[in-house]
C-alpha cells in the first residue's frame, strides 16, 4: 500500500489536479453566473465545443494563442446571446433551448472544422500554451511547482474565483444580477432591466464556458478533435448545484472532482490487482454525487431559475 | 416545357397496364443478370456507413482504403459518417435502395440492425466491421486484426525501456482494444520477462486531454515507453521526453523524436478482395479478418523514420526475424481479448 501511496502522491499529482480543475472551474463559474440570473444554460456542452474549435482554429490560422482565446470568448458570448434570445427575450423552455444550443454548437463546430481542415489522418495541432513559472512562488517546496508553474490560463482561473465573488456580492451589478434571479418582479419595480441583466449574465457565462473549452484544445491539449469536451459541460452543471450557486464553493467542487479524477488515473496505473477499470472511471462521478447528496441537501436554487420574465404577466 | 408535358401525357394515358408489366419484367431480368456481366458497363458503387466521425482512427483506416480503391480500382465511393445507432439501418437501406453494390462500415454499435437490414437486400453485398461473425447470405465481417505488429512494437518497447516499466493508454476494454494491448505486452514480455505493465482506460474514443493526463500519470509511475492506443498520449510522451508507440496509422509526424513506430492497419487488401468478389458476382458471407493480417499486407509496422538511426541494430534484426516468421506463418501471435490490468 505504501508503494501505491508513493506512486500516487507526487508533485505531478497536484499539478494534474489543478490542470483538470481549470476548465471545470471556468465552466462552473460560467454556468453559475447564468443560473444566478435565473437562466439554466444546458447549451454549455455545445458552447464549450464550438469555442474549443474557434479558439483552436483562430490560433492555428493566425499563430496567436491569445487571439484564439479572444475568439473563444466571443464565440461563447455569442452563443450565450443566442440562448438568451431564446430563453430570456422569447421566454421559451430553458431545458429545450439549452439542449438545442448544445446540438447546434456541436454540429456547427464539426461543420466548420471540416470546412477549414478537411479530412486529416492525425488531428492538426498547434504549439499550445506553455507553463509559465511565477518567480519566487514557484520555488516554494511541495506546493510551489504544481501551483505556480502552470499555464497562464490556470492563474486566470484562480483569479476568476475571487473576482466572481466580488462582482456577485460586492457590486451593484452583482446585486441586480442576483435580484433578477431571485425576484425579477421586484427588480423590475426597482428599475433594473431584467431582460438586460439576464442577457449580460448568460453572455458572461458563455464567455467563461468559451475559455473552458479553449483551455482543452490550446493548453491542456494542443489539437481539436471531435468530442474533446466529453461531458465536462454536464459535469459543470452538477458542480454548480454542488457548489450551491456560490463562486467559492463551485470552484471547490471543481477542485474536488478534479482531485478524484486525477486520483483514479493514478490508481489505474498503480496496479491494485484486478479491479475493473470501470470502477476507477466511475469514481469522480460517484463521489461528486455522494458529496452533493451530503453537503448540498439544503441548498436553495435561485427562486426564479427556469422562470421566464414577462412584464405584463402575474 | 414541351417535353415535360409530353412525358406527363405518356405516363397518364400512353402507358398501358401491359407496358407497365413488361417494364417490370424487364427490370427483374436486369437485376437477375450476373453482376459480372454488367461490370464493364457501369462503375461498381460502394458506400460506407460510419458510426463515428471519420477522424476516429478505426473508421479512418477504412475510409482511407476506400478512397484508395476509388483511385486504383475505379469504384464509385460515397460515405456517411457519425450515423447514430438509431439511424444506422435507415442509412444502410437508403444506399442499398440507391443501387449500391457493396456497403461497408462499422456495425459494432448496430450489430442486429445492420444484419436485419442486410437480409432485406440479398443482392447487395455487406461487409462490416464487427465483433461478431458473418451472416448468410450476404453479410461479411472484418476487424482490425493488427495484433501482430502490436506484438512487434511491444518487443521494441521491451528492449527500449530502461526503467523496466512500459504502459498503454487505451479507450475502453473492448476486444478490438484488448487484443492489441495484450499483444503489445506479450511482445515486451518475450524480450524482457520482468517488464512491468501499466494500463489505463479513458472510457471514451475521443478525449485527448484525458488520455494525455492518463499518460502523464503513467509516466510519473515510471513508464518510459508508452503505447498510444488513443490520441493525446504521444503529446504527453513528447512533453516528458519518453518514447511512444503509435496506433492504427503512421503517426511519426506528430512527434518524430518521440514515436518509434507502431502497428499500422491497412484496409486496402480487404477492400480489394471484396470489390473483386462483388465484381465477379461471387461475394459470400465470411470473415474477411485475415486480410488485415501482416501476411496479406493488411497490417504492418510503421516505418522507423528517425529511429532508423537510433534503434540498436540487434533490436531491428530481432524484430525483422520475428516479422519474417509471422509472415511465413511459423510464428503465431496469440489473440488475448481479456481486459488487461496494471502490474
Automatic annotation (TrEMBL), chain A:
InterPro entries: ABC_transp_permease. The chain crosses the membrane at residues 12-30, 37-59, 65-89, 96-113, 147-169, 190-215, 221-243, 250-267, 279-300. Its main location: membrane. It is a multi-pass membrane protein. Pfam families: BPD_transp_2 (PF02653). It is found in: Cell membrane. One of its GO terms (molecular function) is transmembrane transporter activity. Keywords: Cell membrane, Membrane, Transmembrane, Transmembrane helix. This is ABC transporter permease.
UniProtKB/TrEMBL annotation, chain B:
Residues 56-275 form the ABC transporter substrate-binding protein PnrA-like domain. InterPro entries: ABC-Purine-Binding (IPR052910), Peripla_BP_I (IPR028082), PnrA-like (IPR003760), TAT_signal (IPR006311). The keyword Signal applies. The keyword Transferase does not apply. One of its GO terms (cellular component) is plasma membrane. Keywords: Signal. Pfam families: Bmp. This is BMP family ABC transporter substrate-binding protein. It comes from Manganibacter manganicus. The lineage of its organism: Bacteria, Pseudomonadati, Pseudomonadota, Alphaproteobacteria, Hyphomicrobiales.
